[in-house]
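Let us work through a complete example step by step.
Step 1: write down the sequence.
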Amino acid sequence: MSDSNSAVPAVDRADAVLQVLASSSEPVSPTDLALHTGLAKSTLYLLLTSLEQRRWIEKKGSGYVIGIGLYMLGCAYVHFDNLQHIFRAAAAEFVNAHNEVVQLAVLQGKEVVYLAREDAHRPVRLVSDMGTRLPAHACALGKALLAQLSDEEVLQLLPQELVAITDRTITRHDILLGELATVRRSGLALDLEEVAAGLNCFAVYAGETPTGRRIAVSTSIPTDRLGQKREKAIMQAIVRVAEQVKQRLSTRG
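Step 2: predict the structure and record it as tokens.
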């Protein structure tokens, strides 16, 4: 359940239901929703009816899933200050030149949230759809965004225990702070198989939107497609993507 001290408990209840549905890959039954949210069944059924009427959720068989109405509202997040258009215009050039994916993300608490992705022209694609979350300490996008904060702010933001996703994930705060210092100097953040074995990621801070959202862009490439020469070209190119995004954002400010 959400914070019981909230001044709007009805919103908390709706959020609790939506959080459960969003974290499930299949329809969730009312019984399971009641179990996970702690809501009384009478309250839950009234809430489900209201959410379904707004198309925030949809009935699938004997359960519920996130609805098209909620998706449309969520899309407004990247459309509001033309962020998605600005990103795609810059990312398309990178994809055409290097045939690798480009991703856009924002920092939310201790996690990175993916906002958009421009795919490479390859049959195999990465699972980084809009709304996907990753621990900020583990990925290049997170490091690029955390580097915009002071060390004190980073330590306050991140949990005391940094979870390892692979055996290369940084799990010590002092080592992470040292890497963030390097990112501040170079402008480039790296994830060397820290999120997925055999995958390297390069990220750059791309500025702040007119509404105050700090964003970063990245590319993720299998290590078997990276030689020294190509890696250097990729790094330079993702820096250019970030500069283009930043420049276009500034002209709209």
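Step 3: interpret the result. The chain has a mean pLDDT of 89.
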